[in-house]
Specification:
flat, about 75% helix, mainly alpha, single chain
């Protein structure tokens, strides 16, 4: 493999690391399902292999391919054998159609709890920004 491709993989790994790090940051103190943990580990392996591609040629390729295989196997198993039992399955309304494909691939509980966590952390950020702007405007008014 030429060095140009290895550094292209490195750049791709850095770009894919940004959402991975944000997901890992937002999931601190967050109950993740076993499937969600498998997805995170597989995605982490993919990113780690891509980032290490320029220095560890074969090892980076093997780690990346392992992450991709784990992602596809997990998604395939969840599509072919959907969870059943006491878990809630989201359906498309109106009508009695079957559940969407994304609710089979990802755990509904993970989606809802993660969305709630993102909402809470973004609201905290908005309130901090509002407080900062309010205090700066008061300080400017006091100077006049």
């Amino acid at each position: 493999m030429s060095p140009a491709f290895r550094y292209l993989f490195f750049t791709l790994g850095l770009l894919l690391a940004i959402p991975l790090l944000s997901i890992l940051y937002l999931s601190i103190g967050f109950p993740i399902s076993p499937t969600g943990i498998i997805y995170l580990v597989a995605y982490s392996l993919l990113v780690l292999g891509l980032i290490c591609a320029p220095w560890f040629h074969r090892w980076g390729l093997i780690v990346s391919l392992t992450g991709i295989v784990i992602l596809f196997v997990t998604a395939s198993v969840r599509i072919l054998f959907p969870p059943s039992g006491s878990q809630m399955n989201l359906i498309t309304l109106p009508g009695t159609s079957s559940s969407r494909i994304l609710t089979r691939i990802f755990n509904e509980q993970d989606i809802v709890l993660f969305g709630d966590m993102v909402f809470k952390k973004s609201c905290i950020t908005i309130h901090v920004c509002k407080y900062f702007i309010y205090s700066c405007s008061i300080a400017i008014l006091k100077q006049r």
